[in-house]
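Pilot study result, target chain (422 residues):
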Amino acid sequence: MRRKTRQMHVGNVGIGSDYPIAVQSMTTTYTRDVAATVAQIKRLEDVGCELVRVAVPEVTDAQALSAIKQQIRTPLIADIHYDPKLALLAIEQGVDKIRINPGNLKGQREAFTEIVKACQAKGIAMRIGVNSGSIDALDQRGAEMRKVQVRLLEDGTLERIDPAEERRRERDELVERMVAKALEYCQWADDLGYQNYDVSLKSSNVLTAVQAYRLFAGRSDVPLHLGITEAGTHVTGAVKSAVGFALLLADGIGDTIRVSLTAEPEEEIPVAYEILRSLELRSRGVTFVSCPSCGRVEIDVLRVANEVEKRLAKVQTPIQVAVMGCVVNGPGESRDADVGLAGGRGKGVIFRKGEVVRTVPESEFLDAVLKEVASLLPEAEAKIVYPGASELGPVSAGRTRKEGYKAKPLPMANAAPEPAGE
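Predicted structure:
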């Protein structure tokens, strides 16, 4: 059950418990570079981003927002820190939402009031974005808090000091400060008759963020944007975000999400949708199933799976695709998918909606899978997925128990099949 919240709108995107959980990202370009920023936003739109935030650290960046807004479909959010004048300028430029940080907004209530009134006049939304680093650092006393210490007492015995309880106490205090600051700003907004806003309570520490969101959710019905800030590189960031979001989403908490990765922003979107699909909260896009590979596998399942997933990245129609590499789990998983491949020694069976379509050699795996997927998609997406066999490029070098992965040039998808290994 979703937590019941107020409803709000950012451009044409509804946010709150009556709407699907929206997926957001943030550009990495200098916002003043209009062409580069628009190009990156269009790449984000292609993979399903529903809200996009841009940094506005200087006046030049704020002045570029109107030109960017005119060239994109996605609602545009201006990220503001410190200077309230940048927020007012961004509102004049016609953005759909302002994000302010209560931990560093100059002028505090006076500045906030001015921004809210400007948002009200233009029908613009706001995010009250609390960040633990701006409120207070969890590790304020440095590395000593994180270490288990051992010291020798005068009687010759060793005393072990575990700071876990101290860390929990520090976290509790920090979370209380984060939530108190968010609720203070919410009250200021409500006093002005403004409710088109949501809240985030981010931290790079998963447990701190989860605790803060849960505490706030128990005290307010304001919609929540989930994020684990500065989560890390692709693997680290994806894992931390998945853990934090799963704990909250399973409790019904969360109305928009952003997976923060030290990577190209368009790489954040598939991770976000996969988290939501795994919890059956969204069905948009491809649910991709592939085996982890093991000693039973006799095809180059790693390369084939990666190629198929990459070429399906822009698909937004709900569809399940399986790429499996052995006779144990392959047939079952492939039958359960809309389109599935169950590979064997140099060849594989293609399934469509649980029925065997045909058997193909390994050199034609990519062609066969994508052609079947395209047949189930709307025309516009089908053309992206399957432009034609001659344009698909390399697929697999092949693999057998006897030879392992073949160290030779990759065959083209439309090349003649090679004899199977013994």
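One observation from the pilot: Residues 62 and 90 are 5 Å apart (CA to CA). A full batch analysis is planned for the follow-on phase.
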